[in-house]
From TrEMBL:
<feature type="compositionally biased region" description="Basic and acidic residues">
    <location>
        <begin position="123"/>
        <end position="138"/>
    </location>
</feature>
<feature type="region of interest" description="Disordered">
    <location>
        <begin position="109"/>
        <end position="138"/>
    </location>
</feature>
<feature type="domain" description="DUF397">
    <location>
        <begin position="27"/>
        <end position="81"/>
    </location>
</feature>
<dbReference type="InterPro" id="IPR007278">
    <property type="entry name" value="DUF397"/>
</dbReference>
<protein>
    <submittedName>
        <fullName>DUF397 domain-containing protein</fullName>
    </submittedName>
</protein>
<feature type="region of interest" description="Disordered">
    <location>
        <begin position="1"/>
        <end position="21"/>
    </location>
</feature>
<dbReference type="Pfam" id="PF04149">
    <property type="entry name" value="DUF397"/>
</dbReference>
């Protein structure tokens, strides 16, 4: 047996039978500028060259990753822009209501610990995520 033959690495559980799965080892994860470290969960989004997206809880990435086709992501973004997922304002603080109404600017920033996180200052626009709904929800 040839010892130089590489062995395929074990795929994570979410990859098995999932045609949408992408390797996230070198993914650049972005999160909303509104995400706060004191939140119970922080949504992070990664975009791949083929338009697929991956979404995870940035505070607990070990819990798994959801993958979306370009069409699924577009449907989600359009629904969010149309208010499909809005929370009734009576349940929101004044600040949350202003954010939901679009009165507070939201940008996507490279998540701490993501490849390239140290390449640009925090808060600098590093992609189109803030314009197409990439990590604008936090």
């Amino acid at each position: 047996m040839d010892d130089a033959t590489p062995t395929p690495r074990d795929l994570p559980p979410e990859a098995k039978g999932n045609s949408k799965w992408h390797d996230t080892t070198h993914a650049v994860w972005k999160r909303s500028s509104l995400s706060r470290e004191d939140s119970s969960a922080v949504v992070e989004v990664a975009e791949f060259d083929d338009g697929y997206r991956a979404v995870r809880d940035g505070k607990h990435p070990e819990k798994g990753t959801l993958f979306f086709t370009p069409a699924e992501w577009e449907a989600f973004v359009l629904g969010a822009k149309d208010g499909e997922f809005d929370i009734p304002e009576e349940y929101l603080t004044a600040e949350e209501a202003a954010i939901q109404r679009g009165e507070v600017p939201v940008t996507a920033v490279v998540a701490p610990g993501s490849p390239g996180a140290e390449q640009a200052p925090e808060g600098e626009d590093r992609g189109r995520e803030d314009r197409d709904g990439g990590a604008a929800a936090g």
